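Moderator note: this is an archived Q&A kept for reference. The question asked for a predicted structure of one protein chain; the sequence and the answer are reproduced below.
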Amino acid sequence: MVKVAAYIRVSTEDQTQYSPDSQLRLIRAYVQRHGWYLADDLIFSDEGISGRQATNRPAFMKMIQKAKERPRPFEKILVYSLSRFARSRQDSIVYKQMLRKQLGIEVISVTQDFGEDKAGILMEAIIEAMDEYYSIDLGENVKRGMLEKVTRGEPVTIAPFGYRMEHKQLIPDPETSPVVKYLFEKFTAGASLQELANTLNCGGIFTNRGNNWEPRTIRYLLCNPVYIGKIRWSPSKGEPACITDGQHTPLISVKVWDYTQKRLKQNRATYSASFSNGSIGSHFPLKKLIFCGSCGRILSRSSQQSLQCCGYAKGICKHSHSITIKKMTQWIESILSLLFPNMHCCPQTDDGWHKQEQEILLRCIEKEQKKLDRARNAYLSGIDSLVEYQQEKQRCQAQIRRLGQQIGSLPSHVPVPRKITVFLDHFLSSPSLSDQEKNLLLHAIFSRIIYDTNPPRLRVYIRIP
């Protein structure tokens, strides 16, 4: 018996004819007519989600991953119409080609019979183009209507924290509006974003979505002009926000707002200066190496000189694990000296350092090449799609080219070493290695290092050769 899967999608603007029940009813009738079998666990449904981007549809992506399993769980995917499968021609072509050519799975519309001849292929392409046009045109009409409401000072999104929606108007919420005033008051008095987030989390106060507060969510709240009586709406990513006078009651004064924005700007400038100076960069020697002893999350860089549990920063972990990078570095170097007592740093001559740099870069290239080989094998075995393989291939090749350029910039008289010599004595403070190279070397030795605060200690897990 032919096993099939069903994919159902309904967006917020769809009519009753596209309801999940009506789609499933027609699909089941189609299955019964053909004598096929549709199991309940092979019915995938995305409700209230646009079909413009496949990656934004969790049930769709779950179905694609299910299709890659071995043995093949189903032979066909049934949809009400091709517009339910995708409203983007690119997504439709990519995923249908992958399913058909790599997995032997056909996508069938139960209401559109195109046939398998040349005319059918042409009609299918025309219908897909019309679906995409409809989606784009509908989006433009919706955007135009929302812009008109914003210009009249009417809200077009859900009520922000501190307000509730009544008769399509924002009304101060008696429970949460005092919290908004408290946050502005404490921030202007000198409290940090992290302190404010911790205060709300400890007090059992959650965001509108029921999540814990983080410094970035506090910052977003403090930057929202709705609290001085404005309406802000961003038409789409990359476009400037539209801000107009609203019709609701403001919660704070313009004076408090202006001072808050000034302090936020100063904080951002201080962080940007640290980032541009390289003190808080994308790479540092201890990146993704130290883990929290309480919640198991990574200790990330919280400032230019210290680490902190990222779970604590998000209000998930209840215990602070802050430690200076200098102290953690000293501990790790002490561990390295115990692990490798007979390995010391090579003489710090120019040729010696260039040789060590070249050895590290060659190891990095070898590592990227292995990643490329694994990605190719995953594609050939049907685990990854062609799109996933191409993305990983481009990333690996770009990294190999960059590392090759770094090798090419080294002095030409330095010979290519046949054997990599490990040097560990105070290499974390060496200016001759980049932070990324130091990080790669540490990850080659340690699988993870767990930091406990009570009592202060490190639990070290070493990679076995």
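Archived answer notes: The longest strand covers residues 37-47.
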